[in-house]
Amino acid sequence: MPRTALIFGIAGQDGSYLAELLLGExxxxxxxxxDPSSARAxxxxxxxxAAELTDVDLHSTAAIAALVDRFCPDEIYNFAAFSTGSGMxxxxxxxxxxxxxxxxxxxxxxxxxxxxxxxxSSSEMFGIARTSPQDEHTTFTPRSPYGAxxxxxxxxxxxxxxxDRTFACSAILFNHESERRPAAFVTRKITRAAAAxxxxxxxxxxxxxxxxxxxxxHAADIVRAMALMLRADQPDDYVVAxxxxxxxxxxxxxxxxxVGLDWNRHVRVDPALRRSPDGAQLMGDARRARTRxxxxxxxxxxTMIKNMVDADLxxxxxxxxxxxxx
Length: 326
Ligand SMILES: C[C@H]1O[C@H](OP(=O)(O)OP(=O)(O)OC[C@H]2O[C@@H](n3cnc4c(=O)[nH]c(N)nc43)[C@H](O)[C@@H]2O)[C@@H](O)[C@@H](O)C1=O
Description:
By secondary structure, the protein is α/β, with parallel strands linked by helices. It is 41% helix and 15% strand. Belongs to the NAD(P)-dependent epimerase/dehydratase family. GDP-mannose 4,6-dehydratase subfamily.
């Protein structure tokens, strides 16, 4: 019998990379998506056509329990979340419900069962951290409903591990990107603009802050760490990060240079797009994942950004040939 994995949020960037990985290892992969009508096409386009889609009301404890009963998954991964960088303060009620309370429902559904659970937690739980780098012992000081809801889920996982002996892990994920990243996030915003300027479709990119720094990894590396967590002897929490930071300006430089452009000539800063400043620099110390899981990132920052620009160029040129762009 193949192992079964249930993925909440299968059609997003992370869910699709994980589905690809697990399908390649012979798993039966079942997933839910908030937009089932486009999920099938998106999964097909990312090589996950063999994944099965199912429908569930994430607000219903009974529906989550029934879903788990129906598929008896060996592993559950949760990526279902509201997540757009600039929208971390918007819709706090829905964010609390989906990014936080949903995990209580899943933990309820697997209490006493052998099912293993991994949650996509976030470095946003560190928020205005006082120390850098952050690891599994760093104090959490979230600064948005997004970070607070993720922290609720993270803490429920620790309690389920202690009280109920549930095999549940919290993967504290720092920023992670790829060509499947939506353009609301700064990496894809920049790579798409570099490609668009290179083909003459536009001339300018407007950003909020060039000095902001983040610890960026590739999404495929991040989800591999999550799969390894569920294969460990014991459940635990793990920071997953590259351990290096880059500025938005550096990102621009790499992306624009890759298409032979000088970013200084095309990038403009609009302070209206700027977010409130970070506390200490957000940078992850992933030593626990490296030593206990044998995890290490395989795709570096430069390669990731160049690959994203290449993918955006391909998509734009295809669009131009089909007459989709002006
Ligand atoms: C770990 C965490 O990672 C992600 O959240 P994020 O860090 O907010 O992602 P982002 O790509 O929107 O911002 C990255 C940095 O770039 C700065 N920045 C400058 N200028 C613009 C700008 O014009 N647009 C955007 N979007 N960002 C800008 C911005 O201020 C920030 O410092 C999500 O996956 C989230 O779900 C998550 O958990």
